[in-house]
From TrEMBL:
Species name: Lentzea aerocolonigenes (Lechevalieria aerocolonigenes)
Protein name in the entry: DNA-binding phage zinc finger domain-containing protein
Compositionally biased tracts (Low complexity): 178-194
Domain DNA-binding phage zinc finger: 125-174
Domain of life per record: Bacteria
Transmembrane portions of the chain: none
Pfam family, one: Phage_zn_bind_8
Region (Disordered) residue spans: 77-104, 151-194
Biased composition (Basic and acidic residues): 151-175
Length: 194
C-alpha cells in the first residue's frame, strides 16, 4: 500500500494541484475556487486527483471542472486494472508496452465517451497512420513540432492533438481501403489462373 497515494486533499494540496495543472490563471487559485474543488473532491486522495488530471489532454485539463475530475476518479476506481494499480507488483516488461499503449488508447476513448467529449474518433483515425509532418509512428501521438526539416509549418489540431496532414492521410487511406476492398469483392476470380 502506498501512503503517498492515499495522501489527504488539504487546501494546500488543492492549491498546488490547481496551479500545477494551470486550471486557474495565475499562481494562486482564488479561495472560493479552492473551497469548491475541495467540496467536490471530498474523500479523494491527492494521488487520485493527479492520476485523473494527468490522464487528460492539455487542452482539456485547463477547462476541466471539479465535478468532471470527481467522475474520472469514480471511473478509475471502478476499473482498477486500467489505472495501473499493481495487482501483481510486477513492472511491465518491454514487450507489454504495445499492449499498454493500446489499453491506454482505449481508456482515453472511454473517458471521452463518458464525458460527452468529441474529437476522439478523429484522433483514433489519425493515429492509424504515421504522421507525414512530424514522423510520429502509427499508434504514437504527434509531437508538438510546428516546423519540420523540410521547413513546412503545421500546428496540431486543438481537438485531436494531431497534425492536420496526418488526419488527411488517414482519411485518404480509409477511403482508398474502402474502394479497393469494393473492387476486390467485384473482381472475384482475379489472379486465379496465374
Ligand atoms: Zn504529427
Amino acid at each position: 500500500m502506498s501512503d503517498r497515494n492515499a495522501q489527504q486533499l488539504t487546501r494546500n494540496a488543492m492549491r498546488a494541484l490547481l496551479a500545477h495543472y494551470r486550471i486557474t490563471p495565475g499562481d494562486t487559485a482564488p479561495e472560493d475556487v479552492v473551497t469548491e474543488w475541495l467540496r467536490e473532491l471530498r474523500g479523494r486522495s491527492v494521488g487520485e486527483c493527479h492520476a485523473a488530471l494527468s490522464s487528460l489532454p492539455l487542452n482539456r485539463v485547463q477547462h476541466v471542472t471539479a465535478g468532471e475530475v470527481a467522475r474520472l476518479i469514480t471511473l478509475a476506481r471502478s476499473r482498477p486494472a486500467a489505472t495501473g494499480t499493481p495487482s501483481s507488483a510486477r513492472p511491465p516488461r518491454p514487450r507489454d508496452r504495445a499492449a499498454d499503449k493500446a489499453a491506454g488508447a482505449r481508456g482515453i476513448g472511454t473517458v471521452y465517451e463518458l464525458m460527452g467529449w468529441t474529437g476522439h474518433e478523429k484522433h483514433a483515425l489519425a493515429r492509424t497512420v504515421p504522421c507525414p509532418f512530424c514522423r510520429a509512428s502509427a499508434g504514437v501521438p504527434c509531437s508538438p513540432l510546428t516546423r519540420n526539416r523540410l521547413r513546412q509549418r503545421e500546428i496540431r489540431d486543438r481537438e485531436t492533438r494531431m497534425h492536420p496532414s496526418r488526419l488527411r492521410a488517414a482519411e485518404e487511406r480509409k477511403r482508398a481501403n474502402s474502394t479497393s476492398s469494393g473492387a476486390a469483392a467485384s473482381g472475384t476470380t482475379q489472379g486465379a489462373s496465374a
